[in-house]
Recover the amino acids of this structure.
């Protein structure tokens, strides 16, 4: 039997179980009907939520993430995958922003926005900076992200004193957070990587 048949069977049973066919005060019968209707309403809502989820999962399995995102618009995974697949930059921005609105604490969505803006030509400096700074606002101790931000600033704006200063500051802050990590922390930078970052920072500082 299909889900709708089972649903109808259950609801019918619920009504039959709660209705009192023996003579008695009308208040009990009315209360039973209200309770039964409440059960039915709950199941209708549950099915209304379940069906879009099943459809979205089916669409995602078929690789049509844009349609999956429409079927389940609060699912950040579908929104971000659809953003990666579209060739329309503005549409990608819209999808990523919807993912951020759906879950403001989702770092993956913030990273996706930063990555998108870093690959634009020309780069919108306001969106570029805001994307990385918003992500770092959620995870300020993320050494890898700070280094990536500094690399992008130094690479994209090599003649811009403000960008060079920002990059040097990001390298310095990344090293400070790395210093604070325990010696046995797996995320801690290797001595070779620290030396590389230190050299980049000093090279930028020398340009100022």
């Amino acid at each position: 039997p299909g889900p709708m048949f089972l649903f109808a069977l259950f609801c019918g049973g619920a009504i039959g179980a709660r209705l009192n066919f023996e003579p008695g005060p009308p208040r009990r019968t009315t209360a039973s009907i209200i309770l039964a209707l409440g059960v039915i309403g709950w199941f209708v809502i549950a099915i209304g939520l379940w069906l879009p989820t099943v459809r979205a999962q089916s669409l995602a399995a078929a690789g049509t993430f844009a349609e999956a995102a429409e079927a389940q618009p609060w699912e950040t995974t579908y929104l971000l995958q659809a953003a990666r697949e579209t060739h329309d930059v503005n549409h990608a921005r819209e999808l990523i922003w919807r993912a951020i609105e759906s879950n403001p604490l989702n770092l993956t969505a913030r990273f996706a926005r930063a990555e998108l803006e870093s690959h634009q030509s020309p780069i919108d400096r306001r969106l570029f900076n805001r994307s990385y700074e918003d992500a770092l606002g959620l995870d300020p101790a993320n050494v890898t992200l700070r280094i990536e931000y500094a690399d992008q600033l130094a690479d994209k704006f090599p003649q811009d004193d403000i960008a060079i200063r920002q990059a040097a500051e990001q390298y310095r802050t990344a090293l400070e957070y790395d210093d604070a990590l325990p010696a046995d922390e797996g995320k801690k930078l290797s001595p070779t990587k620290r030396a590389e970052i230190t050299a980049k920072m000093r090279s930028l500082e020398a340009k100022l």
